[in-house]
Amino acid sequence: MGLTYTTSIDKKPTLKSRVKSLGRGTKQTRVVRALDDINLDIQYGQVLGVIGTNGAGKSSLMRCVAGILPPSQGRIEVFGTVSTLLALGVGFNPSLSGRDNVLLGGLAAGMSREEILNNFDEIAEFSELGDAIDAPMRTYSSGMYARLAFSVAAVVRPDILIIDEALSTGDAKFKEKSLNRVKELRSDDRALILVSHAMQTLRDTCNDVAWLHKGKLVQRGHPDVIIDAYQEFLQLGKSAVIDEDF
Amino acid sequence: MSTPLQVYEPFRAGLPKLGRYWKSLWSRRTFIKEYSKSELREQHFASFFGQLWLVLNPLLLSGVYFILIVIIGGATDSSRYAHLTASLFLFYLVANSLTGGVKSVTAGQRLILNTAFPRIILPISAVVIAIFKFIPTLLVFLIIKAVVGSPFTFEMFWAIPVLLITIFLALSLAIAISCINVYFRDIASFLPYFTRTLLYLSPILYEASALNPNLRLIEIVNPLFPILDSWSRALVHGEMPEISSMLQGLAWATGIFFAGTYFFLSREREFAVRL
After folding, report:
1. Would you say the pTM of this structure is higher than 0.90?
2. What is the interface pTM, i.e. ipTM, of the complex?
């Protein structure tokens, strides 16, 4: 499959330039080939890590698989229910309390009211917010916000779960907790797709890694092999900073 | 391998599978309600009066027109004031649906880019918010009606089908305009002028029967004209509205609904790219 779209470029968004361009009837545009001839097959039981530099097309690929962006070429076939964690706190309203946002975020993720209420205690406990769950979310720190948002998303038990760099939020303790939750979700009747820049996380969690670069699939295979090749490509030495596990 | 649950192919303008779409939309009805409530709560969040504004707004609006019609205009006919208030409140149900609907898709960018769901939820939520704002105005009007001594009759129940037709029209307009705004953002800037014009072309500041015969074209081309006339007849004058007026309003609402919904549903897969 492939994904191509056109964006308009307005170099000088001033009134004068707009009046001039109206008269000429021209518009500057740029064609972006976000994904180019990607061929991927992901089976149940696989935990696929997706790596690549910024702008490689990782998030675009996740959005295509989730049905959010239609591909421009090719076809995507999905066998199962998909849940996404592409951004934390989608559907949340900062004016409401954490408790109310659990309901809102859960509903936005496709859960029913009953499912959310049945899992509320688990969500609250996982988030470790305590009494703060009844305070407005606008009073939360970014870490508290991220913890609650992840707790809501992690409760969903879909056939296919897509996580896009959401594990990099929160403090070290919460990162470990959320990673353990992701590991719990690994099973033969579920597929996980994990986009992350944290190489050690991917080595520990995934059984398969795909490397994207400028919209193309460069390589796919065992995590250690692919990640080593990727790091060599970037001419990076081994360190905690590069592994982004700090 | 078994049949895929979902197949995503390149976007081509055309309707999605309506049965599946409706099922997905129905399963999200709780989200529509909660999302609308949360948006409404946020609108007056930081203010002193908070949600009391839902009642204060119609009261103050009514007060402004009381000054205009009764004190400055010197009108002694209380039914004129009642007609204006009732018509204005119903008009604002449509106007608020338009104002909320026009930016519903573009403002829901974060949801659209990160979650797969029927996008039509967004303009529907805008209309639900407008309905929540309308309900207190109805209560305010009934109090005004009692104060001015206007009679309460069983014919007032004809206002219910008129209200349903209005909601249908408001929903149709919100769906259409929300989709247009994705492709032509200037429409949000044109909208205030359009709604202001619509207000003057509708029987709000005047009764429908008082319209100059030379301007009867307005009755035909303005979808709100027959609806507001029916509303005033039922609610203010306690009379049965003309069936032809109600059918005219329903025809407008149905036509705009099918055209707007077709446009929206055939284009919604492209929204994430456009945004």
Report:
1. no
2. 0.79
